[in-house]
Specification:
Blueprint: H1 2-38, H2 43-65
Organism: Cebus imitator (Panamanian white-faced capuchin)
Protein name: Zinc finger protein 292
């Protein structure tokens, strides 16, 4: 019984962590989008930077999940 309760507690904490991580990722994406829109560099260069930073953010987030 205690094992089941401990597992339930662990799952609750990890779900809360996922929600918080998704929120941080959403905030990061909004910041990247803002930077892309306000960029004064050529569109292709700005889009390339955006994509690289997006991929990096997703990789970091995925690494935290595993």
């Amino acid at each position: 019984m205690a094992d089941e309760e401990a597992e339930q507690e662990r799952l609750s904490r990890s779900e809360g962590g996922c929600v918080a991580e998704l929120q941080r990722l959403g905030e990061r994406l909004q910041e990247l989008e803002r930077q892309l829109r306000e960029s004064r560099v050529p569109a292709v260069e700005a889009a390339t930077d955006y994509c690289q930073q997006l991929c990096q953010g997703l990789t970091v987030t995925a690494g935290m999940q595993w």
